[in-house]
# Entry
Amino acid sequence: MSGMGCVGKGHSILVVEYDSEVGASLVEQLSADGYEVCHARTAEHARALACAAPPGLVILGDLDSGTGALELLIEIRAGDRQWGEPSQGRWGERLPAILVCSRAQEPDLLRAFAAGADDFLARPARYLELRARMRALLARAGRDRDSTRVRVGPLAMDTATRAVSLRGRCVVLRRLEYELLLVLAREPTRVFTKHELMRLVWGCQTFGSTRTLDSHASRLRHKLTPEDSRSWVINVRGVGYRLI
# Structure
């Protein structure tokens, strides 16, 4: 649907796309999968829809201006500060946002992640891939709201205080070591590819060496191993890492 009514039992998705055919096709596919969807062709229309019903996730496609999507994304990340009183807020500061744009060279990716994109897809985006990435973002956002505690066996993390303990003993981690552990701990048996982890932890797409990730994973493994006999932060050769 393309009207103002975005609220429903499922997640509400706001599609911002200047091309009416592309936008309508995406709305049709998402609606068929059970999502409540709104389509805006301009930034102004997107603001009006967000005012009527704050969305659970936004998909930013091409706008009439070449930098329109990035400008709107920066506004979204500014949250309520753009609108005055919190009761008048349209955007949530941590609103999940996926950018789907024609420009997809490395500088474009870096600008998108610097502006606050949670994920980036080049046009034409395959719907199944977009839906999978969207579901992952919604799942993570839902877990963040449900609890500040993440536990995997004897390993416990508190996202409010950033405290980490293993069998009751405090584990001191640097910032990126903590972020890496948190991503792995939320889906402990899942194998994350190295490029996924670079995007989720470092906030940018990498096209070259993943040596930075490997060094952080190695330090994290050594910090956890002395506290426990089990193996943590497992390197799945040729793919990436999982926690257990």
The first helix runs from residue 20 to 32.
